[in-house]
From TrEMBL:
The complex is composed of six subunits: RnfA, RnfB, RnfC, RnfD, RnfE and RnfG. It comes from Anaerocolumna cellulosilytica. The keyword Cell wall biogenesis/degradation does not apply. Belongs to the RnfG family. Part of a membrane-bound complex that couples electron transfer with translocation of ions across the membrane. It is a single-pass membrane protein. This is Ion-translocating oxidoreductase complex subunit G.
């Protein structure tokens, strides 16, 4: 006796389900393989990008050195010094000593990520001297809106921070009139606020590290 219509339907559904499972498993393994293959390359390229950015934001430094205590402070910063000073959603990804040609520490370079952009994460690099001067700012990751928030990566915006001796920046929409003021990006207040806060968080961290906290 042949299969009933219901049995044939069940058999078809079972076959389709098995095909989907097989496709899902193969796709999962393929994605995992590709991730394992590309992750080190992506990490290496990001490291190279950071290193190049550090050379830009602290041009006077001859080299950049790692420091165990500084690295520990950076990893704890989001839950300690930054939170205590009101900087939430911001992390110090890494921090290095900026060294002169004799190996003396002249300041810090940092990679800082804020999750407070209009479209989420924005990562910047910051150079800050022991004398309290912001040496430069570079934008490493910027997924903000094209033509608006994306302008945070342009030199016209970034250069406003350079060579300023201030402990905290603020943005204004009426024209910067003091060293601590930054002209906001037109139509991108959230992006402006996120970048300014990231820079201020980096300065806060550098001051804390310099004080030995």
């Amino acid at each position: 006796m042949g299969k009933t219509e219901n049995q044939q339907k069940k058999s078809t559904i079972l076959k389709d389900a098995m095909v989907l499972v097989i496709i899902t498993v193969i796709a999962g393994f393929s994605l995992g393989f590709v991730h394992e293959l590309t992750a080190p390359i992506i990490e290496q390229r990001l490291l190279e990008k950071k290193t190049e950015a550090y050379k830009v934001v602290y041009a006077e430094a001859a080299e950049f050195g790692s420091d165990e205590n500084l690295a520990a402070l950076a990893s704890e910063a989001a839950t300690t010094v930054l939170t205590e000073n009101g900087y939430t959603g911001i992390a110090i990804d890494d921090a290095y000593l900026a060294l002169d040609s004799s190996g003396n520490t002249i300041g810090y370079v940092m990679s800082i990520t804020t999750q407070n952009g209009y479209k989420g994460a924005i990562t910047i690099s910051l150079g800050y001297s022991l004398e309290g001067e912001t040496k430069g700012v570079e934008v490493l990751v910027n997924n903000e809106t094209a033509g608006l928030g994306a302008l945070a990566s342009e030199s016209g915006f970034k250069n406003q921070f350079a060579d300023k001796v201030v402990e905290k920046f603020e943005y204004t929409k009426s024209g910067a009139a003091a060293d601590n003021q930054i002209d906001a990006l037109s139509g991108a207040t959230i992006t402006t606020s996120a970048v300014v806060d990231a820079v201020n968080a980096g300065i806060c961290f550098a001051l804390s590290a310099s004080a030995g906290n």
